[in-house]
Design brief:
It contains 2 helices and no strands. By secondary structure, the protein is an all-alpha fold. It has a domain at 13-43.
Length: 60
């Protein structure tokens, strides 16, 4: 796994509160929830490649 980049993120307090509740429902920290959502979003639009474990198996 590559090293994680650290940066400051400013959010509206209502958005952060909603993210905290959502994260708790998914048994994640707010930080992990934000990372999960961003990763999912960039994968869906094709900005990053899926890992080998997520890619469908190819027919030989």
């Amino acid at each position: 796994m590559s090293e994680k980049k650290k940066f400051l993120l400013r959010l509206d307090s209502d958005i952060y509160t909603a993210l905290e509740k959502w994260a708790a429902d998914d048994l994640r920290s707010a930080n992990a929830q934000i990372e999960f959502l961003l990763t999912d979003a960039v994968r869906k639009v094709g900005r990053i490649r899926k890992t080998d474990s997520e890619a469908p198996a190819e027919n030989p």
